[in-house]
Design a protein that fits this description.
Elements: H1 10-15, H2 49-52, H3 58-63, E1 73-74, H4 86-97, H5 110-124, E2 133-136, H6 139-150, E3 156-161, H7 165-173, E4 177-182, E5 184-186, E6 190-192, H8 195-200, E7 206-212, H9 224-237, E8 240-244, E9 270-275, E10 288-291, H10 297-307, H11 313-324, H12 328-347, E11 354-355, E12 365-370, H13 377-388, E13 390-391, E14 393-394, E15 405-409, H14 414-430
Length: about 425
């Protein structure tokens, strides 16, 4: 495809944010398991029905049962129990003590953009310029900014599912329609994607294909050859690829998972989201970034200005330090999770009623079924909190394809993790 093609050129990637669409009305029947309900009547004033109709996330519905009870071992969130590296924390303290408490650059400090540019370029073997980097207030914020930028009411985004709950909720909150390409799963191949299923979900109102790889909750990793095919499809159709790669360093064979940044040209319709939360044990810092076509920088900068103005400078200083530390902090958390994975591989498949668990090659989750619970995953998780003082996440939180499944996070210290599995065994015996 040549440079003159409007979908391939940088002008096509940016000016093609809004495509002409037909006047036909598309009707989508949503699965009952999705976090959406009829908006309640509000006496205090008007609230958009698409917002009022978003239900409480099911993971929160489990975790709130443990509020005020520190005895519960939480395995429901995607979070390590490692504290952020001492030198990284001290860098933020030093910045505060130096008085860096003023407004900062909306797309990130220039030195932070440069540091991230060097990190991403080195990791994926491509020359990614600083003007292609926009710092965001978390990976979640990055996803919201992207969909605020590319999605009109009535548009749709095709999401590979099972998937992190917030991804689908963002599309719905912006009056878009999530469509789903559900991963297949079998004993021989594990979780895998049928590309034709993905392509069949795309139509004239599709603005983005959302891919989370490595995947939360399944641990599935999109192979590089499939990335090549999907990129060619997106170029041809003028569809954005939104690739959430926050678990790219959480791999146990190699330095990083395959990335769209390894194959995409600067002006391709590719938006890659990453975050400091997982790989640097910085979940509470709320710091991420987007790698994007150069022409999209000012647009994203405007959206940041409208949403939260800028990321605090002292937090950005901590991010620069995290990058400067090179591989040390990343290697520490990967090894921490590797030990947790080994314990999970030993304990989880041998627990009563557990089936269909496969060791994770990426991420830090165990994904499995529990015999006899059917689709009552939320109720089962709530019961385990009350009766066994251990918390896991219900599969129904993760969209189509996850019904009847459960997720736990094994990024805990060995002692804590062993205790959690002891409690889980007790709770499963009572079901």
């Amino acid at each position: 495809m040549g440079r003159d093609d409007p979908h391939h050129s940088s002008g096509g990637a940016v000016s093609g944010l809004k495509h002409a669409v037909s006047s036909a009305t598309l009707t989508i029947e949503l699965p009952l398991s999705l976090p959406f309900r009829k908006a309640p009547a509000m006496s205090i004033g008007y609230i958009r029905p698409t917002v009022a109709g978003i239900e409480e996330q099911q993971i929160l519905a489990v975790s709130k049962l443990a509020l005020g009870d520190p005895s519960v071992i939480a395995m429901w969130y995607g979070e390590s129990d490692l504290v952020t590296d001492t030198e990284i924390r001290q860098t933020a303290i030093n910045s505060l003590n130096a008085g860096e408490t003023f407004y900062g650059h909306k797309r990130g400090l220039p030195e932070f953009q440069k540091a991230l540019s060097g990190y991403v370029s080195g990791l994926f073997g491509q020359d990614i310029a600083p003007n292609r980097i926009t710092v965001t207030q978390s990976g979640m914020s990055a996803i919201m900014l992207i969909f605020q930028t590319i999605l009109d009411p009535g548009d749709n985004a095709v999401i590979i599912s099972p998937v992190w709950p917030n991804a689908q909720s963002v599309v719905r909150a912006l009056s878009g329609t999530p469509r789903y390409a559900v991963l297949d799963n079998d004993a021989q191949r594990g979780w895998h994607l049928d590309l034709q299923k993905l392509y069949d979900q795309c139509d004239e109102r599709t603005r983005a294909i959302f891919i989370n790889t490595p995947n939360n909750p399944t641990g599935w990793v999109m192979p590089r050859e499939q990335m090549v095919d999907v990129l060619a499809f997106a170029r041809e159709r003028g569809i954005w690829i939104v690739s959430d790669e926050v678990y790219s360093r959480m791999v146990y064979d190699g330095r990083a998972a395959p990335s769209f940044l390894e194959i995409a040209q600067p002006d391709d319709p590719v938006l890659v989201v990453n975050s400091f939360s997982k790989s640097w044990a910085m979940t509470g810092w709320r710091m991420g970034w987007i790698t994007h076509p150069p022409e999209l920088g000012d647009v994203l900068g405007n959206m940041i200005e409208f949403n939260y103005s800028c990321l605090p400078t002292f937090i950005q200083r901590a991010g620069i330090k995290a990058i400067a530390e090179g591989e040390r902090a990343v290697a520490q958390i990967v090894e921490h999770c590797r030990i947790g994975r080994d314990i999970c591989n030993q304990r989880l498949p041998n627990l009563p009623k557990v089936r269909d668990y496969r060791p994770a090659s990426a991420s830090f989750y165990g994904f499995f079924r529990i015999d006899g619970t059917g689709d009552r995953t939320l109720e089962t998780c709530q019961r385990l909190v009350r009766e066994a003082k251990v918390g896991i996440a219900p599969g129904t939180a993760f969209g189509p394809g996850a019904e009847g499944w459960y997720r736990l996070c094994f990024a805990l210290s060995p002692d804590r993790l062993s205790q959690a599995f002891d409690r889980l065994e007790t709770g499963l015996n009572r079901l």
